[in-house]
Amino acid sequence: MQRTNERFVERLPLVLPHPAYAYLISALLCGVAFGLRLLAESFLPIGYPFVAFFPVIILTAFLFGVRPGTFAAILCGLVSWYAFIPPRMAFTMNPGVALALCFYGFVAAVDIALIHFLQRANVNLALERERSRALAENRELLFHELQHRVSNNLQVVAAMLALRKNHVDHEQARAALDDAAGRLALIGRISRTLYDPADEGQDIQGFLTRLTQDVVTASGRDDISVSVEAPPGLTLQSRVAVPLAIIVAEAVSNAIEHGLPDRGGSIAVTLEDSSGALSLKIADDGAGLAPGFELGHGPSIGLKIATALAAQLKGRFALDHRPEGGVIARLDLPAGAH
């Protein structure tokens, strides 16, 4: 309702199909005011010849602009002078009448001038609002175009690495190139999905669901089931959502590659919000941690990336044994870090 009123006010003064209509309506309003003044004659004390006509002047100037407002002021002044200023039914001029008419003219002029300046300011405000809206749309368009190009460039680099892999004979080098290409492609997809110019935050539940399904599909496995739980409506800013998404992707990939390399299984991703502190758990029912495993000292680059990103967010990443079997990857972020 408020927006509707704003749009109506921004269209004032009204532009009628023919200018004469504004003057005709103004004259009709003066007639209504005249009738009301006659009806109130017995209730009003002596004097007050203009009391019913000021609202008409204000309304006319507000709806139709300065000229119809001035026309209404002149017409109402003549009617008041003729019908309600003694001696009535005559355009008599004396010092008292002149003073009353001057007072009336001054008040009417002030009313019309104030309405005119307010409407001018309102028009300028509407123009500025429209200009700001256009700038915001252009900014968003340029931002999305930039984000699209960056993501495309990452995809191109990933494709080049994948092609280069075919010309490398060393198995470890081929694996490194393949791993780098996959990570670049993943970061490109995450960036395209999560970054937005308004920085209003992303619904993390829906995004993590799509992300984990994407990781499982990329692994070529159809015997892995993934479930995602997160507080309804929880949103995270891009600066937190992107590293968190990469950590989830690395943990899910690690669970598939090392925990469930030769059999099906399940992976559960759980995100909890406790008074602003986030706790992310990625649990699998795989083979578990190798004896003597130490995070950060193994060959897994993905886990090192996850640890570094957690430190960047002032949090902590760890891997623990799951009591039922398997591994729990856990990321804890303190309150205020996101």
Question: Mind explaining what this structure looks like?
Answer:
- It is a single chain.
- The chain has 338 residues and is an alpha+beta fold.
- It has two domains: 133 residues, no CATH class; 138 residues, 2-Layer Sandwich (Heat Shock Protein 90).
- The chain contains nine helices and seven strands.
- The strands form two sheets. Strands 2-4-5-7-6 form a five-stranded mixed β-sheet.
- α6 runs antiparallel to α8.
- The longest helix is centred in the middle third of the chain and has 71 residues.
- It is rod-shaped.
- The two termini are 36 Å apart.
- The model has no long low-confidence stretch (mean pLDDT 81).
Task: Please give a handful of descriptors for the protein shown.
338 residues, alpha+beta, Heat Shock Protein 90, five-stranded mixed β-sheet, two-stranded antiparallel sheet, 9 helices
How would you concisely characterize the structure shown here?
This protein is 61% helix and 12% strand. It has 338 residues and is of the alpha+beta class. The longest helix has 71 residues, at 95-165.
Structural domain tally: 2
Count of individual beta strands: 7
CATH homology superfamily of the largest domain: Histidine kinase-like ATPase, C-terminal domain
Note the run of SSEs as H and E.
Answer: HHHHHHEHEEHEEHEE
CATH architecture type of the largest domain:
2-Layer Sandwich
C-alpha geometry? rod-shaped
SS field, number of helical segments: 9
CATH topology of the largest domain: Heat Shock Protein 90
Mean pLDDT across residues: 81
